[in-house]
Design a protein that fits this description.
mainly beta, 17 strands, globular
């Protein structure tokens, strides 16, 4: 399975907790000027990560809490190229085992402009992430993480047509919520070990395809009842919940496939584990 370079370098697995340290705080921000599009690269080695839409007129705002002996802040902007680089990189091996009561842990709180079309490239090591992409104008997203717990949601529809949405996760708990609001033509997920939930509810405006690769673990698909779904499976010792589907040859079609306004074409490769389906809502 493909893992980001940062994830491979920063963490092998959930490791012992970071030693107590006195953290520094750094705030960085920039106003929107003439930008018509922006590519944002975010790197984050270990800690707690939060991303959300920012205030109108502000290109970004980032608040870091970090140990300067273990991390180096990144805040670089190339106005001519329309490229913004933000985050923290680790110095040597850095690990994080999650939030502990009373512990001051490294963190990044990042807000990005809702006013400028964005292409996001987010790469993390061992992180506990809460990512809200709803309300951003997204052309494309790549989100790669190592040993982590991530929740990525689209609580509001993307106003742009998004070309691709790509997720990579190592040993992880991963939830993606309201993917129908992403308005992306193609979704890809590559997972190693863990529990994955992909929720395809939201406002569907066009057809889409999803290529899902899960090595070991459970994959739960939350599917709207008014969405036409076709699933092609390549599995080894992985169970599949067929309720709501009719099998034709080696392909499974949702019972409403011929009457649905929008369709999702899903390809799943899975080794050990199970593929679960939950139908959500009332068909229109």
């Amino acid at each position: 399975m493909r893992l980001s370079t940062l994830a491979a370098a920063a963490v092998v697995a959930w490791a012992p907790r970071l030693a107590a340290q006195e953290l520094q705080t750094l705030t960085s921000a920039r106003q929107v000027h003439w930008e018509t599009a922006l590519t944002v690269h975010v790197t984050y080695a270990a800690g707690h990560f939060t991303l959300s839409p920012g205030a109108a007129g502000e290109l970004y705002r980032m608040v870091l809490r970090y140990d300067e002996d273990k991390f180096t802040p990144v805040r670089e902007y190339d106005a001519g190229a329309g490229v913004l680089r933000l985050g923290l990189t680790g110095r040597g091996h850095v690990s994080y085992s999650g939030r502990h009561e009373g512990e001051d842990v490294p963190s990044i709180n990042l807000a990005l402009t809702p006013d400028v079309p964005l292409t996001l490239d987010i790469r993390m090591g061992a992180a506990e992430a809460d990512v809200e992409l709803g309300g951003l104008a997204l052309r494309g997203v790549r989100y790669a993480t190592g040993a982590s717990k991530s929740v990525v949601q689209f609580s509001r529809p993307n106003p742009l047509a998004c070309d691709s949405l790509s997720f990579e996760a190592g040993a992880a708990e991963f939830d993606a919520v309201a993917l129908g609001n992403a308005n992306c033509r193609h979704l890809q997920f590559d997972g190693g070990l863990g529990a994955v939930t992909l929720d395809f509810t939201g406002e569907w405006r066009s057809d889409a395809a999803a290529d899902l690769h899960v090595q070991v673990g459970t994959l739960k698909l939350r599917l709207p009842r008014d969405l036409g779904v076709v699933i092609s499976l390549d599995r080894f010792l992985a169970s599949f919940d067929q309720s709501g589907f009719t099998k034709r040859g080696d392909v499974y079609y949702s019972d409403n496939f011929s009457t649905a306004a929008h369709h999702l074409n899903v390809t799943v490769e899975s080794a050990l584990g199970g593929i679960q389906v939950e139908w959500v809502g009332t068909p229109r």
